[in-house]
Amino acid sequence: MDIETLARIQFAFTISFHYIFPPLTIGLGLMMVIFESIYIRTHNKLYETLARFWTKIFALIFGIGVVTGIVMEFEFGTNWATYSRYVGDVFGSALAAEGIFAFALESAFLGVLLFGWDRVKPWVHLLSTIGVFLGSLFSAIWIVVANSWQQTPAGFHIVGEGINARAEITGFWAMVFNPSSVDRVTHVWLGALLAGAFIVLSVHAYYLLKGR
């Protein structure tokens, strides 16, 4: 088995494991917003209990997603250094946008979400939950845009030749709205929301069966 095949297998395992977690953070984010909103509106402690419970699960899933994502980022350089250099200008733009507009937003509110219970007003905590949810949605946009560009590239030209060739953006919005990006983002969003809903249903069904 050659090195390229081994690199493909390693990256396939890494990204397959990593991709379990980001969609769940999106789906659970929405469920937490729903539970917390109902609690603030009705003052029913049941929904506060649900929101607190799923916040703990969210924190665990978010942490695993970040760690596995970092491993995947390293593999871009260790396994696919030449390809990373070739698409660096395109990927760099998408990932920079994700870091500035999405991950920063998510991280800013995450501390309040996890540690703000009983320390801030309920509506402030709800805003932090909404901020984390929106941040996860925006993160998905830019990651999927980068992936979509690989499948249906647009808004770029190739500079240089041979090993020194690299892709250079000629139109940022053409790159963002490449032929498959909208379909893929929509697919990921809907899939993530369904995944979050089904994991909540599954866990609640288990507790009901156990009479808890």
TrEMBL record:
* Keywords annotated in UniProt: Cell inner membrane, Cell membrane, Electron transport, Heme, Iron, Membrane, Metal-binding, Oxidoreductase, Transmembrane, Transmembrane helix, Transport
Could you list the residue ranges that cross the membrane? Answer: 20-41, 53-74, 94-116, 123-145, 188-209
- GO CC annotation: cytochrome complex; plasma membrane
Q: What is its main location?
A: membrane
Pfam families, per database record = Cyt_bd_oxida_I (PF01654)
Q: Name one GO biological process term.
A: aerobic electron transport chain
Tell me, what is one Gene Ontology molecular-function annotation carried by this entry?
A: electron transfer activity
| UniProt enzyme class | oxidoreductase
Subcellular location(s) of the protein: Cell inner membrane
Keyword Cell inner membrane (UniProt):
yes
Q: How does it sit in the membrane?
A: Multi-pass membrane protein
Q: Which InterPro entries would you find in this protein's record? A: Cyt-d_ubiquinol_oxidase_su_1 (IPR002585)
Q: Does the keyword Transferase apply?
A: no
EC number(s) for this protein? 1.10.3.-
Spell out the PANTHER family in the cross-references.
CYTOCHROME BD-I UBIQUINOL OXIDASE SUBUNIT 1 (PTHR30365:SF0), CYTOCHROME D UBIQUINOL OXIDASE (PTHR30365)
Q: What is this protein called?
A: Cytochrome d ubiquinol oxidase subunit I
Organism whose genome encodes this protein:
hydrothermal vent metagenome
Which taxonomic lineage does the organism of this UniProt entry have? unclassified sequences, metagenomes, ecological metagenomes
